[in-house]
Amino acid sequence: MAGGERAAEQGLRLAGALWRFWEVHGHLGEGRSWLAEMLRLAGPDADPAARAKALLGAGGCAYYLRDHPSATKLWEESLRLHRAVGGGQGGAGC
To answer: CA distances (Å), 12 to each of 5, 57, 66, 68, 74, in order?
Structure first.
């Protein structure tokens, strides 16, 4: 993995870990922007578990911002990835 790819994946992991912070502190728009950018930079070939967690967070931000169609799409992709890495139901385990 090249340096830029490694940095993008670390950013993805960080953003995935921070989404609850953004939710609790009412910074949903900021969180959604960061998650979208990190998902874009890391790309679809990023670590599936890290991507699943970031997608879960992006879906949560979208949901609380009342963008339910986007939330559903993000959560479905998160669940698919979570199951692919052996996580069962996904969501709470991310």
So the answer is: 10, 11, 23, 22, 15
User: In terms of pTM, does the model score above 0.85?
Assistant: yes
Residues 94 and 87: their CA atoms lie apart, in Å, by 8
Structure confidence by residue, pLDDT tens digits, 14-39: 999 999 999 999 999 999 999 999 99
Calculate the dihedral angle through the C-alpha atoms of 28, 43, 79, 64, rounding to the nearest 10 degrees.
Answer: 10
Question: Is the sign of the CA dihedral 9, 22, 82, 63 positive or negative?
Answer: negative
Rounded Cα–Cα distance for residues 34 and 86 (Å): 27
If we measure between CA atoms, which residue out of 89, 20, 10 comes closest to residue 59?
20
- Kindly calculate the radius of gyration of the chain based on its CA atoms and give it in whole angstroms: 12
Q: Which two tokens stand for residue 31?
A: 């969180």
Q: Which residues contact 4 (CB under 8 A, 6 or more apart)?
A: none
